[in-house]
Amino acid sequence: MMSTEAQTVQSENATAHLPTLADELLRRTGRNPAKCYQCGKCSAGCPMAAETDHRPHDVLRLAGLDRREQLLASESLWLCLGCETCTARCPNDCDPASVIDALKAMAVEQLPDALPKPFSAFHHAFLDQIKAHGRISELGMMVSYKLRSGALFADATSGPGMFQRGKLHLKPPKIEGVDEVRAIFKACEEDGQ
Amino acid sequence: MTIGYYPGCSLEGTAREYDESVRLTAGALDIELKEVDDWSCCGATSAHSVNHLLSLALPARNLALAESAGHDAVLAPCAACYNRLARASHEVATDSELAAKMPKIIGRPFANSVKVRTVVDVLREAIPSIKAKATKPLDGMKVACYYGCLLMRPPEVSGSDDPENPTCMEDVAKAAGAQPVSWNLRLECCGGSMSVPRTGSVVRLGRAILADARAAGAEALVVACPMCHSNLDFRQSAMANRGEAPMPVFYISQLVGLALGLPAKELGLDRHFVSVRSLLDNRPAAAAKEVA
Lengths: 193, 292
What we know:
Chain A is an all-alpha fold. Chain A has helices at 4-16, 21-29, 41-45, 56-64, 68-72, 75-79, 85-89, 96-110, 117-133, 138-149, 158-164, 178-191. Chain A is globular, with a radius of gyration of 21 Å. Chain B is α/β, with parallel strands linked by helices. Chain B has a four-stranded parallel beta sheet, sandwiched between helices. Chain B has a four-stranded parallel beta sheet with strand order 6-5-7-8, sandwiched between helices. The longest helix of chain B has 17 residues, at 52-68.
């Protein structure tokens, strides 16, 4: 039986060793947000900086300050285009694009109900198509996106123009290895657990 | 030359003309494309937004299929597919733990021996052949070569010699007889997959890209990515609200195909939203040449 004192010390140690956001990002990306010296070169080149609350160098700073909830609930993460301009230009190899991706993955795991709807609807619709067919059916993806996001009439007028140009297929694609693809999803979901 | 071919999902649908023109133009340049049997989606933006391992494993399956078919290189015309495939290959090559577990994750042997290449890269290598076979060079058509984001970035993945000032696309356009203009926004992102969940951002970014190309005197834009094309061609009707004439957007494979004398219809030029016809038909030099 452990003494009360020993129990207290153990629990204090446990708190002290709870991973910080920086620890978790280091584990996931191999990058330490504390390396960022806030030069702002990433944000100067970010095409979405004008529309976001947190620009790439803000994200790195907030990560270093362990502002987990503020970051994981931020729409700014989902506005990242993945264009990798920030990563290509960072003078200290902080790789903001990978850090932002890792934060998005953490938001999906830790705050699934707080994800901004259009983006979560889009990514779900997209990945569901891969699971269903092994490839994307663009028409199926749009229908699924509209149902999930509630944006039923967005782009409704573009369908006929696409169809007329032979760009939309009514029949979904199908590959032989669709079970293989589903197994990859399963293995990747389990790997992180 | 024979090379594995990974068309990717867009090239079966909204970017059908990219697929048509890549196949036709490659054929005319004696480049044999062997489609990777039973390829699957690369996972694109969505996979790398939610699960890092998934974003590497989905491309790895396709690299493994190309490998088992005996290819040492695979051509991925879509810049986003290219980036995902090249990144998976790069990360597996630099992370031995990942390399060890990947065959188990994808359920296939995987030695990571296939090099991933872009259309621009393959066409640039074929420049001598393009020049020799260009029966209808483009007679100085002023084009703005638009690289967008993922063709050159990040440099350690793309292997680009100069990610901030590349010239490979201009080199190919020149070989086709076009005259590339010098402009600023050729490496800015068009908004990619944001086209669906946040159309307004794509319209904002596209408008700036087209305005800059216009200011530099371009008659047309040249791209090498289905998302760039969709965001700049299909979405252009939402941008052209200041009285400017619409700007045609060519795939680089269509531009080269035209120079090789391949028929516009077979290159899929009628599938665009912004018509290329008036540009092609009203070129005095080209018209005179056809009459002669």
